[in-house]
């Protein structure tokens, strides 16, 4: 496994495993504490693991935490997703940068998303499971959402959205969210 910095957003890393394939399928290490430490990420800081399942076209977007924020390690463990990260850290040299990825269960690539960045994705396969490793206990009072279709972000969602939560449908614009 290797950690690859993503220059478009400061502190964002791809963790690229080496799946071992044979006639049975594959085996892949999806997390390595030593590799995380090598790029300055404390592997012991992660407190919760979660998973979401979505069907083709579902958009889960764009979420972050207020206050101290929340760092997370995100991976598509089954299927394929179009993943989006937006840097919303005012002091970051990459403030307001948007970066997109295609994550899949075939590659098991993970993205480390630093606190203060918004994250969302769209399911591209019939079923897509996304696994999250989070460094803070979830507090719904700190949830922040931003409109998935905000023109300032201009996220190029590859499919027409089929389903999303009411929270995501009615999320404020980026400008409105930054004022709170």
UniProtKB/TrEMBL annotation:
UniProt subunit comment: Homodimer.
EC number: 5.1.3.13
UniProt similarity note: Belongs to the dTDP-4-dehydrorhamnose 3,5-epimerase family.
Swiss-Prot/TrEMBL catalytic activity: dTDP-4-dehydro-6-deoxy-alpha-D-glucose = dTDP-4-dehydro-beta-L-rhamnose
GO molecular function, one term: dTDP-4-dehydrorhamnose 3,5-epimerase activity
Gene3D superfamilies: Jelly Rolls
Pathway: Carbohydrate biosynthesis; dTDP-L-rhamnose biosynthesis
Matching CDD domains: cupin_RmlC (cd00438)
Protein name per Swiss-Prot or TrEMBL: dTDP-4-dehydrorhamnose 3,5-epimerase
Family matches, as InterPro entries: RmlC-like, RmlC-like_jellyroll, RmlC_Cupin_sf
SUPFAM superfamilies linked to this entry: RmlC-like cupins (SSF51182)
Alphabetical UniProt keywords: Isomerase
PANTHER family named among the record's database cross-references: DTDP-6-DEOXY-D-GLUCOSE-3,5 EPIMERASE, THYMIDINE DIPHOSPHO-4-KETO-RHAMNOSE 3,5-EPIMERASE
Enzyme superclass (EC): isomerase
Organism: Amycolatopsis rhabdoformis
């Amino acid at each position: 496994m290797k950690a690859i910095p993503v220059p478009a957003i400061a502190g964002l890393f791809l963790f690229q495993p080496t799946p071992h394939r044979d006639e049975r399928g594959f085996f892949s290490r999806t997390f390595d504490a030593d590799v995380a430490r090598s790029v300055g990420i404390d592997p012991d800081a992660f407190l919760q693991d979660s998973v979401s399942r979505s069907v083709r076209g579902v958009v889960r977007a764009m979420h972050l935490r207020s206050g101290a924020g929340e760092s997370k390690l995100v991976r598509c463990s089954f299927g394929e997703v179009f993943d989006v990260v937006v840097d919303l850290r005012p002091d970051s040299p990459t403030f307001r940068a948007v970066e997109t990825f295609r994550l899949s269960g075939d590659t098991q690539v993970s993205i480390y998303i630093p606190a203060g960045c918004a994250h969302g994705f769209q399911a591209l396969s019939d079923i897509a499971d996304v696994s999250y490793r989070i460094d803070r206990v979830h507090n719904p009072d700190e949830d922040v959402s931003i409109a998935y279709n905000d023109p300032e972000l201009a996220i190029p969602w590859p499919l027409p959205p089929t389903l999303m939560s009411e929270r995501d449908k009615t999320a404020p614009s980026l400008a409105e969210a930054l004022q709170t």
